Amino acid sequence: MVEHQPNNTILVTGGAGFIGSNFIPYFLHNHPGINVVNLDLLTYAGSLKNLEKVEKHPNYTFVRGDICDNVLVKYLFKEYNFNGVINFAAESHVDNSINSPRQFIKTNIEGTFNLLENARIFWKEKNYRFHHISTDEVYGSLGEDGFFTEESNYQPNSPYSASKASSDFLVRSYYHTYGMNVVTSNCSNNYGPKQHDEKLIPTIIRSAINGVKIPIYGNGKNIRDWLFVKDHCTGIDSIYHKGKAGETYLLGGNNEYDNLSIAKKICDILDNKMPNNNNSFSDQIQFVEDRLGHDFRYAIDASKVSKDLSWKANESFDSGLEKTVDWYLNKYQL
Ligand SMILES: NC(=O)c1ccc[n+]([C@@H]2O[C@H](COP(=O)([O-])OP(=O)(O)OC[C@H]3O[C@@H](n4cnc5c(N)ncnc54)[C@H](O)[C@@H]3O)[C@@H](O)[C@H]2O)c1
Fold first, then answer.
1. Is residue 190 lining ligand 1, measured as CB closer than 6 Å?
2. pLDDT at 5
3. Residue 281 alpha carbon to ligand 1 centre in Å
4. Which end of the chain has the lower number of beta carbons within 10 A, N or C?
5. What is the average pLDDT across 245-273?
6. What is the reported pLDDT for 275?
7. pLDDT tens, 162-188?
8. Does the predicted model carry a pTM greater than 0.85?
9. Does the structural domain 9-193+226-254+296-315 have CATH classification 3.30.700.10?
10. In the predicted structure, residue 124 carries a pLDDT above the cut 60
């Protein structure tokens, strides 16, 4: 357990992004004995606005910088004496990885390596934990049925998922080679407040209320398993504190929906909230040219984390989606 140590400071990377900025306030609130140093480069995907609520929290420090920067990461390990790392930092948008993969290789692979290597060099204590945040996309694509489990083969299909798969393998190797106390969690698609505008659900909401076409790839039949971001945060917390060294845990919400159904659900919510609109928002849905190499279906069997660590998702998809729509309406000040 990492909780009751005299100097109890962890490094969280990428904490100004979507999931990290939901995680940090949750974690500070639930673990008052742990200090958090957030190392984030503030790329286009990160924003300190996401962390306004904790910026003055006594247990929170923000450092702007690159996880690939060895001098900086070395300095931070020395200065703060971390006894844990949770690595969220990544280039995370599949479309960008198709158009310009180079930064994905750098941040996701080299950056993870740099963190692991500094942890290996600085940590004399075998119980210090390195938790790597990853994705179910490393397992490739499913057909109509079946689920990903911790035993599924790695079959990444995009430069994004290939870079995440590579980082997962590096993390695994630091357990097998050096005996480091690592865990990896591979999660399904997240949704909720603070997600970057480029992603599917924010794009649907924004396009709908701006009165422009709601773009849906291909025939809209690609399926994802959606997890509310706050449920992802409780899952990470459980795995960070109670997960077994060297293990992988899959997190998912058991909410399988195709992209077209998601767009229609959001339009229904908006039709109810903004009834003055004469037509249904769903009239704006338009199919656009499919993403290259678009995986058909992802679905998670989360029974290991539920059985071993008693984790379960609490938010229903309908209530989570409603909260998400409300958050974006507020952001766009409607
Ligand atoms: N969003 C999802 O649905 C999802 C699902 C499963 C797993 N994941 C994984 O969770 C993690 C977080 O995803 P997200 O959706 O919050 O991503 P995001 O793109 O919203 O945020 C990424 C954050 O990392 C920071 N960053 C990028 N490059 C950096 C670098 N070189 N050094 C330091 N900081 C850097 C960015 O500034 C940003 O704040 C990623 O590792 C991603 O692969 C995401």
1. yes
2. 53
3. 30
4. N
5. 97
6. 77
7. 999 999 999 999 999 999 999 999 999
8. yes
9. no
10. yes
Handedness of CA 180, 21, 35, 109 (dihedral sign): positive
Q: Is 234 helix (H, G, I), strand (E, B) or coil?
A: helix
Long-range contacts of 325-332 (CB under 8 A, 24+ apart): 325/205, 325/266, 325/269, 325/270, 325/273, 327/192, 327/193, 327/194, 328/202, 328/205, 328/206, 329/205, 329/209, 329/273, 332/206, 332/209
User: Which atom belonging to ligand 1 lies closest to the Cα atom of 137?
Assistant: 6
Residues with catalytic roles: 136-137, 160
Region 8-37: what's the mean pLDDT?
98
Spatial distance between the Cα atoms of 12 and 298, rounded to a whole number of angstroms: 27
The per-residue pLDDT of the chain, averaged, comes to 95
Q: Spell out the domain ranges in the chain.
A: 9-193+226-254+296-315
For residue 202 and ligand 1, the question of a CB distance below 6 A is answered with no
Q: How far away, in angstroms, is 216 Cα from ligand 1 center?
A: 23
Ligand 1 mean position, distance from CA 75 (Å): 23
Pocket perturbation via mutation, ligand 1, pick of 88, 91, 97, 232 by most ligand atoms within 8 A of CB: 88
Q: Which percentage of the chain shows pLDDT scores above 90?
A: 94
Residue 210 has pLDDT above 70, yes or no: yes
CA distance 325 to 279: 19
Q: How far apart are CA 204 and CA 212, in angstroms?
A: 10
